[in-house]
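Tokenise the fold.
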Amino acid sequence: MTDHSEILMNRTTLAKPLGGRLSRLASGHVIAPPLVFAVMLGAVWLLNPNYLSPFGISIVAATAAPILLLALGQATVLNVGSIDLSNAATSLLGTILLAMILPGYGFWGILAILALVTVIGAIVAYAQVPSFALTLGTLGVLQTAALVTSDSQTIYLGANRELVSTLYTTNVGFVPLSFWLAVAVALVFWAALQFTRAGQSMTAMGKNETAAILSGVPVRGLRIAAFAVSGFLGGVAGLAILAQAGSASASGIGSALLLPGIAAALVGGASISGGQTNPLNVIFGALTVAFVPMAIQALGVGAQSQSLVYGLFIILVVALTTTRSRGIVIK
């Protein structure tokens, strides 16, 4: 009995510092995205306070809205241990198609496009092919489809424009409605991960897919669902883009959101290895990414060098916010 008691005491003693270290890692991972955003906000304020005027805040929020929606879709897929390189292209195609059919079909056209991009997302995940290779190929297909569909022209909204423009023209606290819509999506996503069986199963799948399979988790169905959500949110991002621009084209607003969307998810704390995401922190990730062009412009960096500075910033922030500890594999 004495030996067993000593063993239990030793295990408890060892578990306490280990639990403390894991708790500190978890808390650090939770607070890192808001801290990074605070640093970015402070840097922008020091460089040019005018960017934080009501007008500047409105512009940043409008820019962040589609990035946040794409990032939430990306975070959903990352959480199950995959990656979606095609969701920005899905959004672009959906934006073009919506601009074409909105004048004739109105609200029903919006529902049809959202259904279409959701199905595209689900189909992408249906084939049992590594997600990186599959979505990279799908990216090319969808970009070509966007070019062909639009005939490389800009499509301007005409009738029924108010059905989407309201998302941009209606402000709540200097912030466009499109951004608040994205925040509401983040809240719903957070609640789903915390309180639903499907959400918890997705996280478990991302942490250890083999264990999830042995536990009876419907892995394939959840992966298809995650990609379907990514496609759907890409469609909603298209609404935000169309509301802001009033037009759609294969080279206009929304044509270069793949990197910002992935970056916002990662800066917001989503793990590239799967099984870890906090939709509320993705909000801070999207805002941080949206402020990057302003910071670059305030520094006086030329447009030809902005991509370089942007890329270096993303690498630095992701490197600083990625959890590293013994036993955790950085993929």
Summary: Confidence is low (pLDDT under 50) at residues 1-27, 325-331. Residues 31-321 form a domain with the ABC transporter involved in vitamin B12 uptake, BtuC fold (CATH 1.10.3470).
